[in-house]
Design goal:
9 helices, globular
């Protein structure tokens, strides 16, 4: 109980420090970060739409809704991590974190899709048991299904760190952050349709890393 006031004072000082660091960011640099969020959001939505097409073809059509599940879980997990690790993901490192997460997406998206495509659990879920895991719902099968889900979640978690960090440290500019976020998401949705029609789902995922 004696440490409670000290902890409150320390938290207030940390919050004040983060606010000062975020408010001191020049407008030009903030716009640059906003464009990173714009293209990240566009990539998210292209990824979601592409995975919807892939899941509906590779597995049954109702697995297309799995995309919404993995996207929401990945975004929620990234927000939880940002809240849980304030010292590691502090305002002074937000630019480095945002750019690192965006760059990591270029590598993680095709890698995660590769892990997904070679996982035999996707065929197990469609009901073709004899061709994959011989119809046994063993511990190994459950682990493969969990790995299938995690491989789809990772890109959304890494990319979600971009928006989560910006909203945490630049809450006073939330309207501008939402502008870059929503316009980027809309652009990604519009772009996803012609790209999928031209090159298909797997190739669309490969294009997103650029």
């Amino acid at each position: 109980m004696d440490n409670t006031p000290l902890q409150k004072i320390s938290k207030q000082r940390e919050t004040s420090k983060n606010t000062e660091e975020s408010s001191s960011l020049p407008s030009g640099r903030f716009k640059m970060i906003g464009m990173v969020l714009f293209f990240s959001s566009a990539g998210f939505l292209m990824l979601e739409v592409s995975l919807t097409r892939i899941f509906s073809v590779v597995m049954w059509y109702h697995f297309a809704f799995l995309t919404i599940s993995v996207a929401l879980f990945g975004f929620a997990l990234s927000g939880f991590v940002v809240q849980l690790l304030p010292n590691l993901l502090r305002a002074g490192r937000v630019i480095k974190i945002v750019f690192s997460a965006s760059a990591a997406m270029a590598v993680i998206i095709p890698l995660s899709f590769k892990l997904f495509s070679i996982n035999p659990a996707q065929t197990f879920l469609t009901g073709f048991l004899k061709k994959t895991l011989e119809g046994e719902l063993s511990v190994g099968t459950l682990l493969l299904i969990a790995a299938l889900y995690i491989s789809a979640v990772i890109p959304f978690f890494i990319g979600g760190l971009v928006g989560a960090n910006l909203f945490r440290h630049f809450g006073d500019r939330a309207s501008k952050i939402y502008f870059f976020d929503m316009t980027g998401a809309g652009f990604g949705c519009i772009l996803a349709v012609p790209v999928l029609n031209l090159v298909g789902g797997p190739a669309a995922l490969a294009l997103q890393q650029y």
